[in-house]
Amino acid sequence: MDEYLTEREQIEVIKQWWRENRWFLLGGIAVAGLGYFGYYQYQAYRTARAEQAGDLYVRLQQTIEDDREGAEELLSQLRAEYADSAYTHQASLLMAKELLITDTARAAQELRQVVEESDDPGLAFIARLRLARVLAYQTNYAEALEVLDVEDPGQFAARMNEIKGDIHAAMGEIEAARAAYTQALTAPGSESVDRNFVQMKLNQLLEAPSTPETAEGA
Is the pTM for the entire model greater than 0.70? Predict the structure, then answer.
């Protein structure tokens, strides 16, 4: 503002500016207030939904062993009402665990759904590892290895390589199994595997012939 204006003139300039711009200013304040209110309401809505999904998951945990039918209904409700919730995917993992003995096909289906739908990379990778083990148990070795064909497994690399080693060993691919077990001992996340058990499996393979032809020669 011009320093040579009188005090009265300065006041008049301010009043004129206010008359010309007050609605823009008040409108901006109103929009900001509504935005804040909307954000708060959305966060409250998300929190409430998470709590509701969590309650259903806890109920499923409590009933799954004694009331499978009730647990199935709770899982269906989670999928229908909270499809994008981490609790829904955790419920699928829990259901798959219970089905491993009685229905491996359904267990694989539950795990595959978590792999494909979960927004949590860690949870999805855990489901991927379990799915590979279920497929290996079904002797679907090629599909199990395909599930484990991940470019960057991160901290799951050691566990992934241990499972790969188990699959290659079951297929009689001794060299590939040795390589996988060796990587499991050195890859990121190696502290999460049972190193003594992996080393024992590797030692057994080191004592085994590499190929059927070698075995015949011996």
Answer: no
